[in-house]
Amino acid sequence: MFHRTGKLSALFPVLLLIISASPAAFGATDATQVSLQEAANGSWRSDANKARDVYRHPVETLQFFGIRPDMTVIELSPGGGWYTEILAPYLAARGHLIEAASPKAEKFTAKLKGNPAVFGHITRVIPFAPPEQVNLGPSRSADMVLTFRNTHDWLIDSPDTLDAVFKAAFDVLKPGGILGIEEHRARPFEDAHVTAGALHRISEDYMISQAVKAGFRLADASEINANRNDPEDINVHRLPPDLAGPESEHAQMKAIGESDRMTLRFVKP
């Protein structure tokens, strides 16, 4: 989950360490092209992570976004690296993967360094701590920006923070570049500021309006990650995999499954 980092001046040594990460730093060797399915099936992914594929549909989701192995892709706020485990090997041979991660994401950085065979060809890791740090790189330098279940956190911080992230994504993308969003879905036309904070959800209509306001065009919407068993009025952390509520409701939450999610593809004109 995203949290504000406050002043960054004290973190410059950490930033320099992260920014300097390169294939050489991770001990990478020449990469072999793998398919999305081969990456998803990789032995480096834990059984627990693979078990979530039934809800998160990583191969189908990335195919829907239109990813290609020769793209320059920026992943925003990768968290524990669930999608990074698939993106890194897929893009290793011909593409570029840039991870925009919190300077405090020590576990994520350790994960990358701990498995150079999988993560050694990540192009770089850049500090990303909205709203203080949202620069994603040179203008018109990326083919795709991806964010998975993060936008509600930026909205919790402030509507201006979410706007700043969308602007940064728009600026870094080439014309025709893609912004791919997966997010916990709230009921239509609900107050996004309320649902983001209380439920960690955003309504699809609000998400689309904010991206369009930033200059993007909605290219397509998919129900790949929909879950019609989810009533959309409960905090997503009560659902699997977190099951943060009382034990007495765990069986009910497991029966629902993971949250209902929108999957949207936007294009920079």
Could you characterize the architecture of this molecule?
This protein has a single domain, classed as Vaccinia Virus protein VP39 (Rossmann fold, 3-Layer(aba) Sandwich), CATH 3.40.50.150. It is 38% helix and 19% strand. It has helices at residues 12-19, 23-26, 36-40, 47-51, 53-56, 58-65, 84-91, 106-114, 116-119, 151-157, 159-172, 192-199, 204-213, 250-256, and strands spanning 72-76, 96-101, 124-127, 142-148, 173-186, 202-203, 217-222, 261-267. Strands 1, 2, 3, 4, 5, 6, 7 and 8 form an eight-stranded mixed β-sheet that branches. The longest helix is centred in the middle third of the chain and has 14 residues, at 159-172. 42% of the residues are buried.
CATH superfamily: Vaccinia Virus protein VP39
Helix content: 25-40%
Determine the CATH topology: Rossmann fold
On the 0-100 scale, what is the average pLDDT?
Answer: 91
The total count of helices amounts to 14
Low-confidence runs (pLDDT<50, min 5 residues)? 1-29
> What CATH architecture do you see?
3-Layer(aba) Sandwich
